[in-house]
Amino acid sequence: GLPVNIPFSSIQYIQSFGNYLKIFTDTRMYLISETLININTLLTDNFQRTHKSYIVNLERVTKATRTHLMIDGVEVPVSAMYKVMVFEKLEGLQ
């Protein structure tokens, strides 16, 4: 599991900074020493990489545009490389 005890359902999105990750949850932000590639293997299907530096919990998306997802008032970028997969998975959740 995750290096800290965080319920997956409370995770809004994850942002990477080199070998560190900021995990944004409903209540706080956690900073852990880990990479997006490694954490991605632990996460459930609700999570999707949207950008080289971001993974989002698709169940927490409140609005989607062609280039961004909104989660709790925060804009998370969607890059061209991940766009098709992101929007296919979002449609599957509807």
Low-confidence stretches: none
Strand content: 35-45%
Total helical segments: 2
Q: How does the helix and strand content classify structurally?
A: alpha+beta
Quaternary structure annotation:
single chain
Distance between the termini: 27 Å
Nearest-angstrom radius of gyration?
12 Å
Strand order of the largest sheet: 3-2-1-5-4
Top keywords for this entry?
94 residues, five-stranded antiparallel sheet, three-stranded antiparallel sheet, 39% strand, globular
Topology:
Blueprint: E1 11-17, E2 20-25, E3 29-33, H1 36-40, E4 47-51, E5 54-57, E6 63-64, E7 68-71, E8 74-77, H2 80-93
Antiparallel strand pairs: 1-2, 1-5, 2-3, 4-5, 6-7, 7-8
Summarize the structure.
With 94 residues, the protein is an alpha+beta fold. It has helices spanning 36-40, 80-93, and strands spanning 11-17, 20-25, 29-33, 47-51, 54-57, 63-64, 68-71, 74-77.
Structural features, described:
This protein is of the alpha+beta class. It is built from 2 helices and 8 strands; from the N terminus they run βββαβββββα. It has helices spanning 36-40, 80-93; strands at residues 11-17, 20-25, 29-33, 47-51, 54-57, 63-64, 68-71, 74-77. The strands form 2 sheets. Strands 3-2-1-5-4 form a 5-stranded antiparallel sheet. The chain has a 3-stranded antiparallel sheet with strand order 6-7-8, with no helix packed on it. The mean pLDDT is 93.
